[in-house]
Every structure is written in structure tokens, then in C-alpha cells.
Amino acid sequence: MSSTDIYGRIASLKNKRNAVIFAHYYQPCEVQKAADIVGDSFQLAKYAEEVENEVIVMCGVRFMAETAKILSPEKTVLLPKPDAGCSMADMVTPADVRKLRQFFPKAAVMCYVNTSAAVKAECDICCTSSSAVKAAESLKQRQIIFLPDKNLGGYIRGKVPEKEFILWDGCCPVHNSVTEKDFTNAKNRHPEAEVLVHPECTEGVQKMADFVGSTSEIISRISSSNNKGGYIIGTEAGVYERLREIYPEKSIYQVSNDMVCADMKKTGLQDIVYTLETGTFEINLPEDILLRSRASLEKMMVACG
Ligand code: SF4
Questions:
Q1: CATH classification of 178-254, choosing from 3.40.50.10800, 3.40.50.2300, 1.10.10.10, 3.40.50.1820?
Q2: What pLDDT shows up at residue 297?
Q3: What does the pLDDT look like over 130-170, one tens digit per residue?
Q4: What percentage of the chain exceeds 70 in pLDDT?
Q5: pTM of whole model > 0.90?
Q6: Atom of ligand 1 nearest to the CA of 261
Q7: Which residues, including other chains, have CB under 8 Å from residue 161's CB and lie 6 or more apart?
Q8: Residue 61 near ligand 1, beta carbon < 6 Å
Q9: CATH class of segment(s) 3-85+264-285
Q10: How far is the CA of 304 from the centre of ligand 1 (A)?
Q11: Which of 106, 172, 246, 247 gives a 20 to 30 Å CA spacing to 163?
Q12: Fold agreement (3-85+264-285, 89-171+288-304)
């Protein structure tokens, strides 16, 4: 099938099923083009609650599809590539959270959205990178266990110094792999460029940056400014590709060509056609997990608007 035919096929299947296609910014460009809504985790979570379609096709990884299901349990949520996972989400289990609660009984437990529904169900509040600071500030407890990303946890600790943080030793292998040397090299090549990084990067890399923010915050900063020396970005390659496409007139550079999340690149256009044609790879969650994980996501929504 030619690419025009395949986009046409997706459009007709979407109409037939009353479906909407969501894609994360880290998805391949051709998948982002097929999507009705492209966003970061927080934006997609909000849209999942708002859209009226009966079916959501989540082009992303499993925890994103689970989050859509938790927030819209009445909808059918399809994950076109069922083995697309997140290695950071796999670094913590519900049993780990229960043990932490025993060690730190007075602490609140805050989890990054990059966790399984079963882990979210054990936590007091969930957050995304763009909502993390507000979510932490909203907690009445002074002591906060944050999991699984130690780098994002360190970033929040810097922004909310009045709280005491206990950080789980997890990380995103893609963001954590970027070194200070990578940034020095990129800066040497483009000395006037502004450096923007995601808070999943290491503390050392964050310190070298002019701006630290979520994917949508990085995109919004580049779209609303015009730095003549350009921009060096430290986040997954899909963001770079999207920015290059939207702003061909801006000089945008990647800190490293290795910032590619293999799981995010698993989904292709044929997978979207297949899931829409067959209705397979539906996300289903046990009722108690659904209810308890929903409570932690709803607290985030209330805290962050
Ligand atoms: S980029 Fe990192 S955090 Fe995001 S899905 Fe891939 S492994 Fe998980």
C-alpha cells in the first residue's frame, strides 16, 4: 500500500470505529502525521478525558495506553504495538512501593506517570514532568517518596526545597545516557545555541542547560523565541524531528544522535491499520487497580489543573 493509501485507509477505519488517534512526540514522524492529537504524557492524559470518541488508539507505550484507560474507562483503548513498554516503568513494582511505605510510614508516595497502572494504584499522587512541581507542592506531607526516576526526582527536589525527598534509583536509559561531554561537544560546535533539556537527563547535564522542562515546555519555548544561534535539545529524537518539520527556518540541533527510544519507535502505520481493523490489543485493567490508580491521577489533575 502506498503511503497515501495507508493514510486514507486509517482515516476511513477511524470513521467506521468512531476512533481518535493519539501519538506521543517520541513516535516516528509518519505515525505523528496519522494522529489527531500529538502531545506529551500530560497533554495526552488530559485529552483522554476530554475526547468523545468511543475508541482511543494510543501510539506510544503501554503505560500511556493504561493511563488513557484509567481516565476514560468507558472507552475502548487500543495499543497498536502491545509489546511497546518503558524500561523506566519496569524499574519499580507494586511490591517495591509497599516495602517503601513500611520503611517510611509518614511519607507520601508520588509516582511519575511512567509507571504501570498497578504501581500507580499503590501511590498517593501521580505526576508528569510538566506537573511534577505542582503535584509535590500540593502534598501536605513533608516527606515524599518519589519514583521511579531519580533524575526527575532531583529536579523536583531543587524546585521544592521545603520538602524532603526519598528517591528511587530508576532512570530513563535514553535520557540518562547523555553525558556532560556530549553537551560540551555540541556547545563547541554551536556556541551561541540555547541548551534545552528534559528533567529525565542527569543532574550534571541539567546544570549545563539554559532551560530544563518537559517535552511540551521545550517545544513551546522554541516556538515562542528566536535565538539566532539556534537550539541544542536534549530529549528523545522524535521531538527533534517534529521541531525540524514545524520550524524549518530555525537552527535546531540534537545533543546526541543516540537519544532514540526503541520502544517508542515500534509502532508503524500498518500497526494502526491492523488494530483498527481487528480491534485487537485492547487495554483492560482489573477494577480495583483501575479505581485506585485513577485516584492518584485525579489528584494530579486537581493539583495541576
Ligand atoms: S524515552 Fe525513556 S521514559 Fe520514555 S518510554 Fe522510552 S524508556 Fe520510557
A1: 3.40.50.10800
A2: 95
A3: 889 999 999 999 999 999 999 999 999 999 999 999 999 99
A4: 100
A5: yes
A6: 6
A7: none
A8: yes
A9: alpha beta
A10: 23
A11: 172
A12: yes
Domain boundaries, the chain: 3-85+264-285, 89-171+288-304, 178-254
Ligand 1 atom closest to the Cα of residue 262 is 6
Q: Cα(55)–Cα(61) distance, rounded to whole angstroms?
A: 17
Closest by Cα among 132, 145, 137 to 162 = 137
72's CB contacts (< 8 A; 6+ apart) are 48, 49, 51, 56
The preferred substitution site among 171, 172, 259 for testing ligand 1, maximizing ligand atoms within 8 Å of CB, is 172
Cell of 237: 529524537
How do residues 242-289 score in pLDDT, each as one tens digit? 999 999 999 999 999 999 999 999 999 999 999 999 999 999 999 999
What spacing in Å lies between the alpha carbon of 296 and ligand 1's midpoint? Answer: 21
